[in-house]
Amino acid sequence: MTLTVTGRHIDITEAMKLYAREKLEKILKNIPKVSSVHVIMDIQKYTHQVEVNIKAMHFTASATEKSEDMYCSIDKVTDKLERQLKKYKDKLQSHRPRKNEPFKEAAVVFDTDILEEIEEKPKIVCEKKLHAKPMFIDDALSLLEDSTDDFLLFRNAETERVNLLCRRKQDRDLELLELNL
Question: Which of 26, 78, 85, 122 sees the fewest Cβ atoms within 10 Å?
């Protein structure tokens, strides 16, 4: 853990640095993998402000407090950070499974009718007879764009072959397939 203490409009004494370090080490002893702590002390007229930013592996905490005494501001900001870190730690513990509890065995019951429905082969639901009308590709494009259908089967007037013009589902672009019969 690297602790950086910065002063704005103030000369920071060793006593202030030591006091901030002791308070922060006390509340950070149970938080794993704290990479950096940045303490910013500021004085504006009669107001002493302390801002602390803590960066851990999966967590960032910051707090700011003002008072008429720098040591009092450090106390207040560490209390605020302690509440934030306690909330974070409780959240971590509530999301982790208990190590000593064995897994509960669960009986899975399948309905045989549902299994039979899943194993059945697909059925033909609807039959349509389509007549491949002779037309040019440009005419087929305009006809498909005007309709709500996803495909159009037609006989290409230039090649005399059966073509299938279909709209792709992922990007709604058109594909032209030529069938060799």
Answer: 122
Q: For residue 120, what pLDDT is reported?
A: 64
pLDDT at 20 over 60: yes
Q: Are residues 18 and 83 in the same domain?
A: yes
What b/e sequence results for 34-45 when a residue is b if at least 16 CB atoms lie within 10 Å of its CB, and e otherwise?
Answer: beebebebbeee
Q: Token digits for 148?
A: 């709500």
H-only helix segments in the chain: 14-28, 70-95, 112-119, 137-146
**Residue 59 sits in which domain range?**
2-95
* 61-95 per-position pLDDT tens digit: 999 999 999 999 999 999 999 998 888 888 877 76
- How many CB atoms are located within 10 Å of the residue 179 CB? 12
Say if residue 48 is exposed, middle or buried (CB neighbours under 10 Å; 0-12, 13-18, 19+). buried
CATH number of residue 88's parent domain: 3.30.160.100
Note the pLDDT of residue 151: 82
SS3 category, 59: coil
